[in-house]
Give the backbone structure.
Amino acid sequence: MPRLPAPPLPKGLRPRPKPPGDDNGAGVADTLDPLEAGVTAVDWIDERTSLTPVGRWLLFRKVPRGVNWYYTLGSATLFAFLNQAVTGVFLAMYYRPDASGGAYESVRYITTDAFLGQFVRGMHKWGASVMIILIFLHMGRVFFFGAYKYPRELTWIIGVVLLILTLAMGFTGYLLPLDQRAYWATVVGVNINAGGPFIGPYLSNFLFGGADFGATTLSRFYAIHMLIIPGAIVALIGAHLYLVTKLGITAPPWLKAEPEKQFQPETDV
Amino acid sequence: MPGAFEGETVTRRRFMVGVANGAGALAAAAFTLPALAFAVGPVFSHEQWTWQPIGPSSDFPNDNFVTRVIQIQQGPLGAAGNVNNTLAYVRTRNPAIDTEPEDQYNHWIALSSRCMHLGCPVRWTPAAARFICPCHGGVYDIRGMVAGGPPVRPLDRFYTRFNHATGLVEVGPRYSVNSELRRFSPRYPGEPLDGIGQYLYPRQFAQPKPPPGVSQKK
Ligand code: HEM
Ligand code: FES
């Protein structure tokens, strides 16, 4: 096998020549091969956490024959969510939830002045729609493939909660630029919410933080949008993926189960 | 699980499990419950209103409206710029058209611009003598009664009074009305106040109290 030329390493890191004689691997442990440094670090962590089997369990699972691109819609939704999380965290570095004009001004600053601000805001804004579209497509895939049936009902139920939370993200996020469209859409949305009999008006009081849109409505929506719901979504995605991994993925409905093969002494020797 | 001695009903193990779980629940409740109450508090605290001067009585005709910007919420946090503003359409009471009983709080009719369908701002169009909503086509007449479209009740109103010390007309808290212009404590748009509607949407604690001496249905 052709060998790469040895890199110009400082003395301490150079591989030590093997001591003479067949030492059966002894003395290898204190040799630091720089190419193996990464492996060593992973080994160090793995020896203390045993995470490798968990990763293997999560990523190297058996999938049924016939899985296709529609099965990637769940992961696509996951990445849409991660995009929202990352861009949202960085938008929060510039955004100011100040109802007396500061919020609008800070969004204007992000869009027109901040370096890459328009891009990051665009990723978040358009990503929100992408995530909603993907979550519905994923749900459609699960529905039309019959993948919600026993034993995956709980996966479906958690999915429904994720869907509701995702829509709530859309509703609370819409207010944050605090322009005319944001303000009136929120007023109309909260009023629709108040139309629920008996508890609707109180839920709307809760959303407004009082009887009407007021000084604290924006900060309330901001806290719900960036802390409460994302926390719940992360936890529920964890539970969702745990169940997906534990139960395994369903085969497409058009695949017939293979008939159990009988043992035939003449051919199966 | 059998007890350690005769007649024991709670074993040591069960007792310890109970104590550990109870202590955990207590510790969790100690921060969760106050935080929840903190977030829910505004639902139960009455909004404060002060009377806001809107001009001398000669400003207001009795056959057309004059607009006034007023503040809808004056909680401890105070005004928050434009988001607290709302529009009142004000005119002098006209006995020829305003048939609801007169008292000290409706010598001037102050209608809220909030549409009673879903809360968009309605606009007075003098040529048609109608309020018209830009969102879904709600229409109201000069008394604020529904003349067409989806709104479920007449436009909300504000109490008005005359301040003899300053010589100015003042606007007070909001109230809602049913189709007979009977006064109710304020409701959200979209909540009818005739028939069963008044029971489906009960009074909210957060709404401001009516001025003294007013009979306002809860
Ligand atoms: C934040 C939103 C969501 C994320 C990140 C997510 C993620 C995933 C992923 C990665 C899978 C693996 C298989 C696949 O991709 O098809 C999956 C499966 C599944 N999801 Fe979701 N999902 C979400 C929302 C939903 C919704 C709204 C529903 C339905 C109401 C749902 C129901 C299911 C079910 C039943 C499975 C199991 C499918 C099978 O075993 O074949 N999920 N999800
Ligand atoms: S909000 Fe006025 S008609 Fe719908």
